[in-house]
From TrEMBL:
Assigned keywords, A-Z: Membrane, Transmembrane, Transmembrane helix
Domain of life: Bacteria
Record-annotated membrane-spanning stretches: 38-60
The protein's name: DUF4320 family protein
Source organism: Acidilutibacter cellobiosedens
InterPro entries: DUF4320
Length: 160
């Protein structure tokens, strides 16, 4: 007689109104939608934060290509090459280090026609993982290195 009113758990079953609330499925689709929306927004923010790394690398590559082109046209590592380098650093708000390697200078800082050189730029991009409200942000420095080889397009008539 009592078993009929107590449900499947017998004597230890909760009271009937609580069982109604426990097994009521009304509104569950809204809860699922809220959780799915939160997951999608979190994934989108993560992907967008990773895009900053690629944008930084593309800017570094652009700076290096422009400097190489100026050196190719000038036939030397001149003030004009450094002006382009510093101007592009300001525009992109990056602060890479530039080195000119694998070059054979003729008569000072001049690079003879068809001689090759390599411009290397290195930069360490700080990637913020998260920013807690009670502590400084957690960051990882991602090292970036771009090397582009160029060839001088200027003939220097050197007096020997």
């Amino acid at each position: 007689m009592n078993r009929r009113h107590r449900g499947i758990w017998g004597r230890n079953s909760p009271p009937f109104p609580f069982m109604k609330l426990l097994f009521n499925r009304k509104g569950s689709s809204y809860f699922d939608l809220m959780v799915k929306t939160l997951v999608v927004i979190t994934l989108m923010v993560t992907v967008m934060s990773f895009l900053s790394i690629f944008t930084t690398y593309l800017n570094l590559n652009h700076i290096c290509r422009r400097v190489v082109r100026v050196i190719e046209l000038e036939g030397q590592v001149s003030d004009r090459a450094y002006d382009v380098f510093y101007r592009l650093k300001q525009q992109t708000s990056l602060s890479p280090e530039m080195t000119v390697e694998d070059v054979e200078y003729q008569g000072g800082q001049k690079i003879q026609l068809r001689d090759t050189f390599t411009v290397t730029m290195t930069y360490s991009h700080p990637f913020t993982i998260f920013t807690p409200s009670f502590a400084p942000p957690v960051k990882i420095d991602i090292p970036m290195r771009v090397s582009i080889t160029g060839m001088s397009e200027k003939y220097w008539k050197l007096l020997e």
